[in-house]
Specification:
CATH class: Alpha Beta
Number of helices: 11
Structural class: alpha/beta
Strand order of the largest sheet: 1-2-3-4-5-6-7-8
CATH architecture: Alpha-Beta Barrel
Bound molecules: flavin-adenine dinucleotide
Helix content: 40-55%
Distance between the termini: 23 Å
Shape: globular
Number of domains: 1
Radius of gyration: 18 Å
CATH topology: TIM Barrel
Strand content: 5-15%
């Protein structure tokens, strides 16, 4: 099923993201994680590509096929253009098709510091166009509520986003953020620029301080004072910090859902405990809005 259909049938689409493990020795763990996430009945599960592992050793296809054909959940396979040749992309599209994977998150990928030329594509919109010229897939793309870290400002980034969407994007998934007002401002500006596809809010429950420092350095998300206080207060109490991080994410989600967002995409960091706590916390709210299967 195309994920775009889910947005038509549900008030709020609720999905998870996982990443393939770096080492092949931990591959069993990721299958256990997926089996646990399956019990939470997400609308779809996305699998990153290249991020946190090497492209050459990519497990995105294998894990997406398992999600579709064994768990019977829609997978969203991420695909980046970094260092990819069109021929390689075509082969991967064929493999995805053969494995019944119909949904792709088309991304540029992060440009390695030492590599100014990134392959045959420079931007995600070129990958979107290329996929659209092939077999029909449902295509998602990334968006950035605070502007992409390399763009001059939010306005310029949204202009580029509009161009990308017009190349054939069916829905958008946002970068993580910790201040909902920044997301609402972004939604407002995107609608004014004529972006009409559903935009899912990306939420990451932060469960340790190192994780947050890394994320902020990578994507530049702003940290509200309230959030910093939590990090400082519980930094030496791992369990308290984890629970406070989950509570903060839940508060964000309840506010977003109450404000009518199209969907929530949870960056699970391959942690089923955190995904379970969040799902339990929003289950009643989502069920009251959607006619969904019992979760958890
Ligand atoms: P683009 O849409 O190409 O944008 C990149 C930059 O170029 C922006 O600054 C944009 O404003 C600018 N730009 C775009 N179009 C034009 C144009 N026509 N002219 C001039 N400038 C333009 N990375 C991975 O490696 N693997 C993953 O699995 C992965 N998953 C992700 C999932 C989500 C939901 C998100 C939000 C990000 C993910 N990323 C992943 C990170 C992503 O690859 C990086 O943020 C990357 O730097 C940008 O990718 P993009 O697809 O948004 O690029």
């Amino acid at each position: 099923m195309f994920i775009s259909e889910l947005f038509k049938n549900k008030k709020v689409v609720f999905s998870f993201e996982i990443f393939p493990p770096k080492s092949t020795s931990s591959i069993n763990t990721i299958y256990n994680t997926l089996n646990e996430l399956n019990n939470l009945n997400p609308d779809y599960i996305s699998v990153t590509y290249g991020a946190g592992g090497s492209v050459a050793n990519n497990k995105t296809l294998e894990l997406s096929a398992y999600i579709k054909n064994t768990l019977n959940i829609e997978p969203l396979a991420h695909l980046t253009c970094i260092n990819s040749k069109k021929e390689e992309i075509d082969n991967l599209l064929l493999e995805l098709r053969k494995n019944n994977v119909e949904n792709i998150l088309a991304l540029r990928g992060d440009v390695p510091d030492d590599n100014l030329k990134i392959g045959e594509y420079n931007y995600a919109y070129e990958l979107v166009e290329h996929i659209n010229n092939k077999n029909k897939f449902c295509i998602g793309a990334a968006c950035y509520p605070e502007g992409h870290i390399q763009s001059q400002n939010l306005e310029e980034d949204i202009d580029n986003l509009k161009f990308k969407v017009d190349c054939g994007v069916d829905f958008l998934v946002s970068q993580l953020f910790f201040d909902n007002n920044l997301f609402y401002n972004f939604l407002d500006k995107s609608i004014k620029k004529g972006i009409k596809v559903p935009i899912q809010a990306g939420i990451m429950p932060v469960t340790n301080k190192k994780q947050i420092q890394r994320i902020v350095s990578l994507c530049g998300a702003k940290l509200p004072d309230k959030f910093i206080k939590i990090m400082d207060r519980y930094e030496n109490h791992p369990e308290a910090l984890r629970d406070a991080g989950i509570a903060y994410a839940l508060e964000q989600i309840v506010d977003l859902v109450s404000s009518g967002v199209s969907g929530i995409h949870l960056y699970t960091m391959n942690n089923p405990y955190v995904a379970k706590k969040i799902t339990e916390g929003v289950k009643t709210i989502l069920n009251s809005l959607n006619d969904v299967k019992e979760a958890v």
